[in-house]
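I am still learning, so can you show me any protein sequence you like together with the matching structure tokens, please?
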Amino acid sequence: MSLRPPSPADDAAMGVALDEARASLASGDVPVGAVVLGPDGAVVGRGHNVREADHDPAGHAEVVALRAAAAALGRWRLDDCTLVVTLEPCLMCAGATVLARVPRLVLGAWDPKAGACGSQWDVVRDRRLNHRVEVVGGVRADECGALLVEFFERQR
């Protein structure tokens, strides 16, 4: 579903997102991590799931990272940034990505049950919306997926 292959920088950024995902484990949150890269490729926002930790239904990694990036840059339009996330964003997070005008999304594991960037829905590339996002998928997918599989196996 990706038009372009991932770059070495995408792979490195996914490593940072994976570190964020692992931080979710301390609070019992689903291990999903995200980082926002600024125009120069530096991390300007990072986040991991905090729904359990903060009792926040919107505490998804992507939302946390987008908010941090907007605060760091002093603007809500992230039209020169890249969002890197370990799991394909859900409807809410895909919508937030579009509304923040993020031009590029790099994702790890696809989410065939709730993914909104090509699996169940394709919100980020819907022509009816005012902005579309380039999607680079499957970056370190095995590693991202294994973290989730291990988490849910421990829950059973």
